[in-house]
Amino acid sequence: MSELFDAVDALVASRATLPAPVERKRLRTAHSLTIDEVAAALKVRRATVSGWESGKTEPRPPERDAYARLLDKLAELYPASPDPAAETASAPDAPVPAAFTAVPAPALEQPLPIGPTRDAAVLSAPVKQQVPALDLAAAPAAASPSASTARPPTSRRPGASKASAAGTRAGGVDPRFENGPLAVVDVENGQMAAYCTGGLVLDVPAKSLPSLVEWTLKEAKLGQPKMSGPGRPADPLLVLTEAALERYGLPTELSAEEKDAGRIPEGHKVIKQLTRADWQLTKRGFGPWARIYRPARGSERQCVQLCIPTWNALDARFWGHAAQLPPVELARILGTYATRVMTPRGSTAVTGLELMTALHPPTHAVRDEETGALRQADTKTPGSLGTDPVDCAPCEAPDGHPVLTALDLPRFHVRGPAEKLFEEAYDWARPMTDGECTLRYLVGLDVNMAFAAGANGLTVGLGEPTHVKAPTFDPKLPGSWLVDLSHVDLSRVKSGKEWVELDGSLLPSPFTPKGDRPTGPAWYATPTVAYAVELGYDVTPLEAWVRYDNGRYLDGWYQRLRDAYLATMADLGVTADLPPEDFLTAMEGYKARDPELGIVVAAIKATVKGGLGKLRERPRGEGWRPGERWRALERPTWRPDIRAAVISRTRVNLHRKIVKHAAFTGQYPIAVLSDCVVYAADGPSPMDFLPYRDGKPLPGGFKLGINPGLVKHEGTQTVLWGEGVREQFDAPQLNFARFIKDGTVTAADNGE
Question: What's the per-residue H, E or C state across 389-449?
């Protein structure tokens, strides 16, 4: 009889009633549970629980019964509000009673997830309120039992959007910065308010910009702990909305003249207010990313940074529509970026460069043996670039660099590969073969975070270059090498330990950005020359500029950005453990699941590319003339050799996969652009031509996945489309990789 009862129970469980997907998510977040915790309890994958909450899939027995039981228990603890809007309207804003001005810090020690959020504590500051930090699609979540007894009912400001908390804070929770790294300052119903990460709202009493800076440093508890032992904490960031600009007497937009100058005039009344209050501005003046400070007193740093979106601080090329978002959502986006990458210090490019320095501070403190006081060390911090700029080697110098004046080159001389290091990303294409024209589709693959992956584990120079004549090549020694690689024949190369025969005419050369075979001696970065050796060919450098002081300077930078990227993609439903087919499905329209988090993903990618680009920043006006120094040269982080090494390694990594794929399948790329490669295939999916066997990829070849260095589907077009656009623009070698994503070709491809 018991067996019959068990069978009946199982039958009932198989049809267990479940709440709507949005309610499932609300219940989980109300109890401060993460998707990983639920998945572990039910012994399923994270993506499975995510699918249940998004409504894409439904649980099946036996997990369905357990999942229904969990939701029933949570529903008892957190019943849904019948009319959230009415409930919110009936709760007037009120000062926090003294008995509830603080909550023990452990409530914030757990990582704060994106999307579903944990209840944030009501912290001690001027009058604070907590905007419920909810998923955009979820109903307002009730407070957890532990929180409900420790604080009064919270209230939302009328019209405020729902927010989601950010990820793990850098360096853990620091009581000095318990309100997060930044705040968006806005005017709400005539009152100034600062919207922080996690949905926290602070009332701002400041009536002027100088008093706002004072309040930020003394009461707001904003900032971010240091990332490295010898480093310093990040300065608090205030984002001023258009309404806040008007309140503090600043223009809501810059005039054409001010845009060209990148700042408002020094005689502006607000700058005079700051000066009277003993505040100073950096040499860049009061622009979109202004820094307001007083000289440090001892170890006490007094500095606040401003971000002004309406002055184009959040460039739409990298931040999408972030500047148009309401304060709560803007705080969510920037807070997510700050906690996972770092507090923005300017554009994504500037922040990428600043992240390198934050992880490897150039100086450190030592104790004076005579006085016992702390002072700055006389030597640079090991593993850093130091405090003093280093001139590059002549071959590494861009045109116009002052180091080239000593070479006495003829006027208007154009340096060739034997005089200048040309390490750039791929831009190569070829005509299709007859066999490829019989196939139906062109399929693009894109390497995830390709340049970040190229930086991972890369040894780069940390100090000055040393000139060496007729050196013996050392693949472990970073530098630039003058060597003839024209003898490397791609028709016969080593792939691993074996020699393989290939059709070299269908492959791009790994040694030049345009994929052309070298014709004589040229300058190359160490990874490029090392790859020639890996392919099975001897190399004999004629001369080199090498750096004996070297190290893996970019490892921490890569890891920080990788973790930020993976965490944000996981919040969008794309995790690192997905099988190939599930990964392709998860990537379809992933940004539409949360457009604001999609902005964060784009900003992280821009931080990688922009940060590397800043290593060789060119003059930006400044009245510069060729042969003169420009401002960027005074930074120790102006290092074109490091940029060249990363690009070299990235290009080599992609070529290695191309060779492996060609040797195993006989398939060759038709076009390559930077980190995107296009193949002809019978089907529209990468699975139609990638050699997966039993779910496992070709070792050393292309592997689908979200991790940096793995590939995703970039786009698919038909072969007829490809031939049509090449004929339309009379461009037999039009680079399909540039247009494969959406198929839109607006002009002939000129390589720019």
Answer: CCCCCHHHCCCCCHHHHHHCCCCCCCCCCCCCCCCCCCEEECCCCHHHHCCCEEEEEEECC
Question: CA separation (Å) from 521 to 333, 481, 524, 646?
Answer: 49, 10, 9, 21
pLDDT at 156: 38
What gap in Å lies between CA 5 and CA 1, rounded to an integer? 6
**Computed from CA positions of residues 500, 504, 507, 513, in that sequence, does the dihedral angle turn out positive or negative?**
positive
Give residue-wise pLDDT tens across range 558-570.
999 999 999 999 9
Peptide bond into 62 cis (omega under 30): yes
Distance CA 339, CA 336 (A): 5
Q: Is 537 exposed, middle or buried (0-12, 13-18, 19+ CB in 10 A)?
A: middle
Percentage of the chain with pLDDT > 90?
66
Considering only 42-56, 72-86, 88-102, 164-178, which range has the smallest mean pLDDT? 88-102
Both tokens assigned to 260: 């060209």
Q: Is a pLDDT exceeding 50 seen at residue 135?
A: no
Give, for 599, the enclosing helix (H) or strand (E).
helix 595-614
pLDDT at 87: 35
Residue-wise pLDDT for 321-337, tens only, equals: 999 999 999 999 999 99
Cα 345 from Cα 304, distance rounded (Å): 11
Angle, CA 157 vertex, CA 253 and CA 92 arms, to 5°: 145
Which tokens belong to 261?
Answer: 């100058």
**pLDDT at residue 36 in the model:** 77
Pairing of strands 237-240, 182-188: parallel
Distances (CA, A) of 592 to 25, 166, 318, 369, 707: 18, 19, 17, 60, 21
pLDDT reading at 534 higher than 80: yes
For residue 36, give the H/E element and its range: helix 35-42
Q: Is the pLDDT of residue 125 over 70?
A: no
Q: Residue 33 and residue 67: Cα distance in Å, rounded?
A: 13
pLDDT value of position 10: 58
Residue 144 pLDDT > 50: no
Q: Looking at residue 117, what is its pLDDT?
A: 33
Asked if 264 contacts 285 with a C-beta cutoff of 8 angstroms, the reply is yes
Q: What does the alpha-carbon distance between residue 105 and residue 130 come to, in Å, rounded to a whole number?
A: 16
What CA–CA distance (Å, rounded) separates 328 from 200?
A: 9
SS3 content of the chain, % helix, strand, coil (to 5): 35, 15, 50
Q: Is the pLDDT of residue 381 over 70?
A: yes
Measured CA to CA, the distance from residue 235 to residue 728 in angstroms comes to 54
Distance CA 157, CA 189 (A): 9
Query: In whole angstroms, what is the distance from residue 433 CA to residue 104 CA?
Result: 69
Q: What is the mean pLDDT of the chain?
A: 85
Task: Decide: 677 and 654 in contact? Cβ < 8 Å.
Answer: yes
Report the pLDDT value the prediction gives residue 15, as an integer from 0 to 100: 59
Here the tokens at position 583 are 């990964």
Distance CA 143, CA 160 (A): 19
Distance CA 746, CA 729 (A): 10
Q: Whole-angstrom Cα distance, residue 273 to residue 122?
A: 33
Q: Which residues is 693 bridged to in the sheet? A: 696
Angle between helices 555-571 and 595-614 (to 10 degrees): 170
Q: Which of these, 134, 153, 30, lies nearest to 90 by C-alpha position?
A: 153
Mean pLDDT of 641-667: 97
Q: What is the residue type of 98?
A: A
Cβ neighbours of residue 335 under 8 Å, at least 6 residues apart?
Answer: 165, 166, 180, 181, 182, 196, 197, 198
Tokens describing residue 338: 């700050």
Distance, CA of 79 to CA of 93 (rounded, Å): 24
CB-CB contact of 197 with 180 (8 Å): yes
Greatest Cα-to-Cα distance within the chain, rounded to the nearest angstrom: 101
pLDDT at 8: 54
Whole-number pLDDT of residue 82: 52
